[in-house]
Design goal:
This protein is α+β, with helices and mostly antiparallel strands and about 270 residues long. It is built from eight helices and twelve strands. Helix 2 crosses helix 4 and helix 3 packs across helix 4.
Length: about 270
């Protein structure tokens, strides 16, 4: 590799965020990989026309061709693109060559309706220190002991979600490690007489750290769907807090909304 090209590539494996003056810990080639990967998943490249050539991508994103090649190599390893000699590089859209079917809706509901998944228990601890987010959700002091359950769920032999779940310490009498099969933990608790009445839930996107990336078979920094949920019983007390990380290649969250025009400020309301 020529000296100037090596210097250009080295400069890009730094902290520059594409299209911004902000900094980031992700190398530029990984940022470009993430952008192109999302465009492929969103169907911007439908597989009938080739992706822009390397030179065009280099100019569009103001990166070197070395960076473009590294990003394309990552996409090719994941079977998200195919290179056809003399023709160009083509995307493999979802559902097509290299694509995958996405699940839609709450995974727990889909399991109840018969979705064939398996769950692998990673850890079970009856006295784990509750992190601040979980402690606050369960009305515990940060660092208080809590039941901690971590599981990796698979769909069609592919990693679907990585879930960490916390329960108040007294719930340890209601659940045993030997009972943690493929069912959602909620179903196991309900069998002991717990009545779940409502839940508070937030959905966001996060970048995969090295541990989540390894478990879900994605690249470090790949986008993941993060779902946090706190469940309350019929007395209004929180008894379960969980955080799930989902691979967007396998899963997307779908909601039905209705327009409420009953007031001077109409709003969209979630109905399912």
């Amino acid at each position: 590799m020529p000296k100037t090209q090596r210097a250009s590539a080295a400069a890009e494996i730094g902290r520059r965020r594409l299209g911004s003056t902000q900094t980031t810990s992700l190398p530029v080639y990984h940022q470009l990989y993430t952008i192109l990967r999302q465009q492929i998943q969103d169907g911007i490249f439908d597989g009938t026309q080739p992706l822009p050539p390397e030179m065009a991508l280099s100019k569009t994103y103001d990166v070197s061709r070395v960076t473009v090649r590294r990003a394309l190599e990552m996409l090719e390893r994941e079977a998200l693109i195919v290179r056809r000699h003399g023709v160009g590089t083509f995307a493999c859209p979802p559902g097509g060559e290299g694509g995958s079917e996405r699940l839609t809706g709450l995974v727990e509901n889909l399991i109840t309706l018969g979705l064939d998944t398996t769950a692998k228990l990673i850890s079970f601890d009856l006295a784990a220190a509750a992190p601040a987010v979980a402690a606050t959700a369960l009305n515990l002091k940060p660092g208080s002991p809590a039941v901690r359950i971590e599981r990796l769920r698979y769909y069609k032999s592919k990693p679907l979600s990585l879930t960490v779940l916390y329960l108040p310490p007294h719930m340890g009498d209601r659940i045993r490690e030997s009972e943690l099969d493929d069912r959602p933990v909620m179903r196991i608790l309900e069998a002991t007489g717990i009545k779940a009445m409502r839940a508070e839930q937030t959905i966001s996107a996060v970048a995969a750290d090295d541990r989540a990336a390894d478990r879900l078979s994605v690249g470090v920094g790949a986008p993941l769907i993060r779902l946090r949920r706190t469940v309350f019983d019929d007395a209004g007390q929180p008894f379960e807090h969980q955080q799930g990380l989902y691979n967007p290649d396998q899963y997307e969250y779908h909601m039905l909304l209705t327009r409420d025009n009953s007031s001077s400020r109409p709003q969209w309301r979630h109905i399912g």
